[in-house]
Amino acid sequence: MTDNEPIIDTSGLVKQYGGIAALQGVDFSVDRGELHCIIGPNGAGKSTFFKLLMGIERPTAGAIHYKGRDVTSLGSFERARLGFSVKFQNIRVYPDLTVYHNLFIPLRRHHRMKKIPGQVAELLGELRLSGTENETVSNLSHGQIQWLAIGMSIAAEPEVLLLDEPTAGMSDDETRETAEIIRRLSATGMTILVIEHDMAFIRDLNTRTTVLHYGRLFAQGTFSEIEANEEVHQIYLGTL
Q: What is the model's pTM?
């Protein structure tokens, strides 16, 4: 991979479920270290696109490249080993365990035992969760659980982080704090792709944005360009 090559690119990506085309020939790329948002109305193909990127599902046609390597046939565990991580829309935490143990589980795969307490403390600071390490997860607020799920996703120090609706169910204050968390993660050089419906949140991130519509790449540009696009307003932004 050269410096000017995208870290991820897809070509002609198609996904069909029976007679339904969830994605129809998506050509997409993201640069190393880029923060990139993906928006679109319900049924646009956003979550399907993430599943294909993560290797949870296989495309019907087309290819996915990571650092110039064709990874189309690799499964999710293989892609995780290459540096992918995902925080799903449906939060995947262990509610009956403490915050510490939720982070301990992914950290132990990548760090020596004696370093884990320090790693946990560092993550909790980044996630605005300092002081919660001994709390049972089920006692946390919804926003705190979302942040913990992000923490579990970054515990492996991935190169590429996929965030599927990270602010779902959050208050306005929690949403603003989540934007700040993501900006700080992006500043470390991590490549981050975000699916989100909350346009105030996307506006706050203010970064390159892709619009999917009926499984196609409909528009792409800065958020200002997307927000000023009348066709995008007609299909999505104008409904807010």
A: 0.91
